[in-house]
Amino acid sequence: MVKFLINRPIAVFLSFVGILFFSALAIKELPVSLLPGIEVPSVAIKVDYPNNPARIIENSVLNPIRSELNSLNNLKSIESTAGSETGIVKLQFNYGTRMDLAYVEINEKIDRLTESLPRDMDRPRIIRINTSDIPIIRLQLLPKNQADFIEVSELAEKVLKKRIEQLPGISIVDINGFRDQYISINPNREKLQALQLSEGQIDQVLKSANQELGQLSVKDGQYRYYVRMANRLDDLDEIRNLPLITRDGNVIALQSVADISYQQEKVQSYHLFGETEGLVITVHKQNSAKMTELVPMVYEAVELFKEDYPKVDFELTQDQSSLLNAGIDNLRTSLIYGGIFAFAVLFLFMGNVRMPIIMGITLPVSLIISFLLFYAVGLSINIISLSGLALGLGMLIDNAIIVIDNITRKRKDGLGIIEACIQGVNEVMAPLISSMLTTLAVFVPLVFLNGLSGALFYDQAVSVAIILGTSLMVAFVLLPLLYRIFFQNVKKEIKEDSLVFKTILSAYKGFYKLLWKFRAISFVILLLLIPLTYVTINQIEKAGLPDIEKTETLLSIVWNEPIAAEASKDRIRNLLNELNTEAESESDIGLKQFILSVDEGSVENAEIYFKFNSKTDKSATEKWLLSYFEKRHPNANINIEDAPNAFDQIFTTEGSFFSAKWKTLGNNELLTSADYQELSNEVKAISSTPPLQGKGFIYEDALEASIDSEKLSVYGISEGQFKSALSKALDGYLVTEIRRFGEVTPVRIQRPEADLRQQLERVTVMGKQNQEYALSNFVTISFSSNEKNITADRSSVYQSMEWEELSSEDIEALTVELPKVASARGLTVDFDGTYFEDKENLSQMAFILMISVALLYFILAAQFESLIQPLIVIFTLPLGILGALIVLQLTGGTLNVMSAIGIIVMLGIMVNDAILKIDTINRFAAKISPTTSADYKTQLAAAIAKTGEIRLKPILMTSITTILALLPVVFSSGLGADLQRPLVYAVIGGLTIGTFTALYFVPLAYWFVSKKK
């Protein structure tokens, strides 16, 4: 095939021009995003039920929802948390579930359940969780002094949201911190009593005035007309002039006995930018949109907002496109420096100007064609796929160097230009294809990891496969054609080896002779390094993601006091005022209003985001915050952590390391704080690490109202009548709603602000002989300690003890002894936590690695037609891993996702070198025709030595160009460099020892495992 193509240069060039043209079109159409559009198999159901405690929300709302949803297909787990006024149900499905169908099924079940849920509660919100739900940027709206907050809220909801949504590529625009208003009717109790009017009459007049009579049809001859009859309120003046009829028959206006005005709804959510109260708009992109184009459009739109709405200040924060830009910059850097260093190394080793030019053409051509294949398989340009391309660049250079070197060697053997190109490519085609397959044998099985990790590896594995396949096509087709064009008129002998390489070759021969002289000892020493790899793996620190030098902090606060959101806002402002820092800060206080928020939420919770100018400022502020809360708010629970970026939000696993879930038998009764203390003491005797209180074991003070039913009977008041009056006694109640053009304005009877006792004294209930009695006569108020949250799983309500760290001995002791403790108390206990998930993932990873090694072995066995020689390649892998781990330890790195990817790529390059070397030795060994056994050993030793000299140049050039191409990342700064640095260290360390292994371990191993005739 190579002969057929190389004799048709015009057709080949035109084909490549056509492919490059379509590749350029594909690049324009490829979506650009931060992360792949992964369908996360999770759904959250949020419930808002104002003025209701956790127990009512659990019993009346969450329990029926869990029971209804338990029969969902592919449901892996269901967890719910009921809090004060809010509740959330989190559904986890098996990975691979069609989430669009699951979403429809959940909605249908919730619709069927609506009739059995409280009628005064809004329909539960069902939220799909997706990687694209992470906002790409946040827009701060800060009203100036003369601006009305209600007007700014309406501006954000009705104007700005719609203008941003009109930008191409925007999916959702979410708002937090906005304000609503309602019509407040505050009756004057003294005037009502003087006119012998009741509050119920006001209620009845408002409902009657806002009642729709429906549609009537009137027949007129042959025609029938539909007449819409309505008696609806439209504005505040109409309400003020509504007529009330006194007992004397006089008609008075409602405004004579009540204060009527617009009031701001009860605020349970605040947003601060710095110390300034405002709103925040989060912008989310569509999966197919290009983030690099979308974010600049948002900036342009905001500049127009500044001109159009001068009463509001606008600021853009938390731009997530910086992470993507860092990845693109790293790829660009790798390409530029990779090309430069490839040129330099080729000049250094070959001293020929034409070969670097050939390399300079094939590298970008391979990369551009790769994007066409991206488009064909539906990949987007994102951090994961770009890292796959960056990883493939080293192997791309590897293939080009090997083909050029082999063609040059054939020319040196005296073959013509065309024949040298044909034989040079054909000779290395099989081992290069085999090396690509062995690399994919390591990568592809990772796609089958459970959950999100497998989905992320899919993008990376496919991108690596694409870049490798493209580089092979270019190396086998375009590169020999270019070689023919550049060298067809060169009559003199091509200068193959430079003075530098001859010096290196001489040093290699000297060291090789020394090792070969003591080959048994040398081979044993190298074999003894393999167990050292296992020891190093156990010793090195493990982590999920590399440590990224962040200048952003997130402070999460739970006040552990029943305070209002406004009080929480005041505390946050005092904190920021005393902090007096130049850092940019954002605060979300109370219940978040974001549609896509899946936080459990509480009015007494708050989050503060800080963006510092330097890491020094960040560290100093975090210490100050710890000291501040110890002195000012010792009861508050705080958590100070690096502000999560998009990677953290996707990779972070919720839940504690290890937890014990306590459940009562046969009912949903909860254990008391006294029960917890007794259990905790028993657990402390079992585990050396004391447990932390889980959600179900956290309590808070609450007011408890007891109704005197006997006294109600004496005064002739029914309990239902009394409870109805009591429900309206505190904050007022909704009477009706004014609906106009899609807007809904509530109309409420409002109570004046007062303490609980005064409110109960002001509201009356009718008894015998139409006598009114104050509610306070029948209610006893006391303080009690109630559970703050009620948690439940698929089976029942539970209360948990949690551990963030535990030794394996403690885990074994707890899993054995706690069931005994539970049984003695009439309880059951289940165990949960990331420990079990991590254990399952490690088992699965070990199994997948075994599959990868098996695939590697079978591919090599087919390549070499030997069952022994593949073991040589496999035993080189631990040595390369050892080199990677040593460099990671020396640089203070960890074994994490990125360094593991670097190790995999490094192994691909190592395998490539080993395969080519063994393949070359086999070809030389096949030509040996010995007369005696000693003669065979002599000829085999010569063949091994000759192979080492022939393959020295491509092995060294491949390793050096790959290392030098990645080296700039080590000296770069920023988020992208921090993310890629462990990968680079792993590749550099692995190739450093891996090159030595390919040069010396492979020939020694071949000698000892080959049959001596």
List the helices and strands and how they pair.
Blueprint: H1 2-6, H2 9-29, E1 42-48, H3 54-69, E2 75-82, E3 86-93, H4 99-113, E4 125-128, E5 137-143, H5 149-165, E6 170-176, E7 181-187, H6 189-194, H7 199-209, E8 211-220, E9 223-231, H8 236-240, E10 243-245, E11 251-253, E12 258-264, E13 269-273, E14 276-285, H9 291-308, E15 312-317, H10 321-350, H11 354-377, H12 383-412, H13 417-443, H14 451-487, H15 499-517, H16 519-539, E16 552-558, H17 565-579, E17 584-590, E18 605-611, H18 615-632, E19 637-642, H19 646-651, E20 658-664, H20 673-686, E21 692-693, E22 699-707, H21 709-714, H22 719-727, E23 733-740, E24 743-749, H23 756-762, E25 764-766, E26 772-774, E27 779-787, E28 790-792, E29 797-803, H24 808-824, E30 827-832, H25 834-864, H26 869-890, H27 897-926, H28 933-970, H29 975-1009
Parallel strand pairs: 7-24
Antiparallel strand pairs: 1-3, 1-4, 2-3, 2-28, 5-14, 5-15, 6-14, 7-12, 8-9, 10-11, 13-14, 13-17, 16-18, 16-19, 17-18, 20-29, 20-30, 21-29, 22-27, 23-24, 25-26, 28-29
Helix pairs in contact: 2-11, 3-4, 10-11, 10-12, 10-28, 10-29, 11-12, 11-14, 12-13, 12-14, 12-27, 12-28, 13-14, 13-25, 13-27, 15-16, 15-28, 16-26, 20-24, 25-26, 26-27, 26-29, 27-28, 27-29, 28-29
Structure description:
By secondary structure, this protein is α+β, with helices and mostly antiparallel strands. It has five domains: 2-33 and 324-545 and 838-1009, Multidrug efflux transporter AcrB transmembrane fold (Up-down Bundle), CATH 1.20.1640.10; 39-129, Multidrug efflux transporter AcrB pore domain (Alpha-Beta Plaits); 182-264, 2-Layer Sandwich (Multidrug efflux transporter AcrB TolC docking domain, DN and DC subdomains), CATH 3.30.2090.10; 552-644, Alpha-Beta Plaits; 658-730 and 754-837, Multidrug efflux transporter AcrB TolC docking domain, DN and DC subdomains. It is 54% helix and 19% strand. It is built from 29 helices and 30 strands. Strands 1, 2, 3, 4, 20, 21, 28, 29 and 30 form a nine-stranded antiparallel beta sheet that branches. Strands 5, 6, 13, 14, 15, 16, 17, 18 and 19 form a nine-stranded antiparallel beta sheet that branches. Strands 12-7-24-23 form a four-stranded mixed beta sheet. Strand 25 and strand 26 (772-774) form a beta hairpin. The protein starts with a helix and ends with a helix. The model has no long low-confidence stretch (mean pLDDT 80). Pfam families: ACR_tran. One of its GO terms (molecular function) is xenobiotic transmembrane transporter activity. This is Cation transporter. Keywords: Membrane, Transmembrane, Transmembrane helix. The chain crosses the membrane at residues 331-350, 357-377, 383-407, 428-449, 461-483, 518-537, 845-864, 871-891, 897-916, 955-977, 983-1009.
